Every structure is written in C-alpha cells, then in structure tokens.
Description:
Elements: H1 2-11, E1 16-19, E2 22-25, E3 29-32, E4 35-38, H2 44-64, H3 70-86, H4 97-115, H5 123-130, H6 135-151, H7 157-160, H8 195-204, H9 208-211, H10 216-242
Antiparallel strand pairs: 1-2, 3-4
Helix pairs in contact: 2-3, 2-4, 3-4, 4-5, 6-8, 6-10
Protein name: Reverse transcriptase domain-containing protein
Organism: Mytilus coruscus
Amino acid sequence: MFLRILNRVKDLSNLNLTFSGNVVSDAECVKNLGIYFEKTLTMDKQISAVSKSGFNQIRNIGRIRPFITKEACKTLICSLVTSRLDYGNALLYGLPATSIQRLQRVQNTAARVITRKRKYDHITPILKSLHWLPVTYRCQYKLLVYVFKALHEEAPVYLQELVYIYKPMRALKSENAMILTTPRVRTKTYGERRFDKAAAVLWNDLPSDLRNIHSVNVFKKNLKTHLFRHAFIVLKIFLYHCNL
C-alpha cells in the first residue's frame, strides 16, 4: 500500500501550475513555520534537523557541565534541546518507531548530561527521575491538549471543526462520556495520522474521568500523570520480555 501511494506521488512530480505568467513546479521539501515537509510526509528532514541541532546544543552544554549545577543544566537542556524536540511534535504522531527513536536518542543523551550518567547506563530510571515523558508520549500529549482546547473552544476554529462529540441515536451510557466520533480513513500510512482520526483514537482511549475535566491546567497535570504511568509500565513489560 505504501509503495502504491509513493508511486502516485511520483506520478504528480511533473505537475506545473502557472500564476501570472510564472510557472510553479512542485518541490521535494518545503519549510513552513520552521517545520520541514516532504511530499511523502515522512518527516525525515525535520527529524534530521532536530537531531542535529539537539546534539549540537548538548555538546556545547556538555563542555560546561562540570562547572554548573544540575538545576542549571536542566534549565539549559529544557530551553535549548527539549524545546526543539517539542516544537511541532504533534506532526510526528504515527511515524514508524525507527523515526521516533532518532529523537529519543537525543532526549536520552540530554538526560545523561543532566544526571552525569555514563553512555551505557540504563535510561529508564534516568527518565523517571527527571519525570520526562518519552518522545512518543510527548507527541500524544501535545495532540491531546489540542483536542481538549478544541472541545472547550480554546483552540482555533479550524481545529474545533475537526472534532465531534459522539451523539447516539438513543439514550446510552456513552451519551455523556465525551466520546469523539471516529472518522473512517482510506490509508493507514497517511489517514491514521490525520488530526481528526488521531484525535479521536487518542481521546477515546483516555479514562472517562480525564475526558470530563473542564480546566485546561488540571487536564494537563492529570494527562501527564496518566501518560507517564502508561509509558513506563509499557516499557517495563517490554524490557521484561526482552530478558526472558
């Protein structure tokens, strides 16, 4: 399926549009608001750019790490590295694990610099001690905050128009459960990553008490706790099976 989609994209590669006598042709990659978009939406260019800038900042911070406190180092990392990992990360939802792992290595290295751990020290307890969500869950967190704001009319209208509360035809328990209508998509590669589809899937998987919160600050706090627990439970199970 993915190869079929790529072939269809390649078929359009010679598409030219004329505006006021000027011919505009397609581009392999464009940059918009600091985010790189390829025509196949693999986000490889964006991930490479974030990884490169992240590691550059980590190296610079590493040079002065012996002379600054842990809190000062954490502040620098959050300002210069984590901010890059989080910028536009909602667009990375649904990418292959191999792509996300490249960014996870940046976060892991940053965590080791803060805690002054060695390269091969186990990363899970380090991330837990910093109370950092892994990169995959940071993407989910960003998307879910957007959904919450859209449902409570705190997001732009174009996002509000993409989420719909499920309205059953007759009285059901799910009537007041704040469940979203899940749209149908034609492709897994692109369709599953659409905001309306991803928003519904992630939102409907949340506990009902979390979906019924009305304060954005309370929602953010409880959402991070929920994702944090889930992230490290899943990781613990994965590591357990790896050691069998």
